[in-house]
Design brief:
Strand content: 5-15%
Oligomer: single chain
Number of domains: 1
Largest sheet: 8 strands, parallel, barrel
Order of helices and strands: HHEHEHHEHEHEHHEHEEHH
Number of helices: 12
Strand order of the largest sheet: 1-2-3-4-5-6-7-8
CATH topology: TIM Barrel
CATH superfamily: Phosphoenolpyruvate-binding domains
CATH architecture: Alpha-Beta Barrel
CATH class: Alpha Beta
Structural class: alpha/beta
Radius of gyration: 20 Å
Shape: globular
Number of strands: 8
Amino acid sequence: MSVSTSGTTASPATGSPTALYGGQAGRRVTVRDIAAARQRGERWPMVTAYDAMTARVFDQAGIPVLLVGDSAAMVVYGYDSTIPVSVDDLLPLAAAVVRGSSRALVVADLPFGSYQSSPQQALESAARFMKEAGVHAVKVEGGRRILPQVETLVSAGIPVMAHLGLTPQSVNAFGGYRVQGRGEAGDELMADAKALEHAGAFSVVLECVPAELAERVTASLSIPTIGIGAGPGTDAQVLVWQDLMGLTPHPARFVKKYADLAGEMDRAVRDFAAEVSTGAFPTAEHSYR
């Protein structure tokens, strides 16, 4: 059974889009469904996706929200941070995820440098993701300093997912990937979260913050919170799919590995190489006549 943040027992959490929108199959999850799930005390998962094939797998597995994260900078493009990736880098990935899914709400990160300078820049960048890729919402990092951008996007009809705590686009300012929100910084994060809700954000990601703070923020808001390294007290949880599948060599402490895909891939490709070397593959079964 899932448990709401107020401690009351909720309905069974299947993690499926059908559960989130009350059994109405044949349509995508919407931000209204996400809000309704919060009211019912239902917890739900969010997973990153960057291509059509994995998006289809996650969509069919019932993941209600897929995030085309700027984490693609590292897991797709091989950079050591999210900062180098651009709108043009992410657009084709986002379009592929939309095409590969049919039920999930698809959210795209606005990458570093694509929204910070002005509300107009944010609107232009978000509009490209909505028009060219077909995503259903965008995600931005930061608190009160980006309220004008959030308000402009919401006024234009673009759903906004906010992101507080360890915001990877600001990693250089933080001096590395460190827990955020301890001590007085927790009060600042709380104020940011409330301001973002007031500005119209439909949800907020809390990354690498103390579990007690994440629980307090969740209790103080009416919009859903999505945790990543923020303890069990949030409304939802998100992980990078390569982390949860065991492809990342040195994942963060908050990552739980649900599979050893790296080991399976290593075994499979070694078996393939060995059979090619010995002539065991291809056989007549794998040949045309």
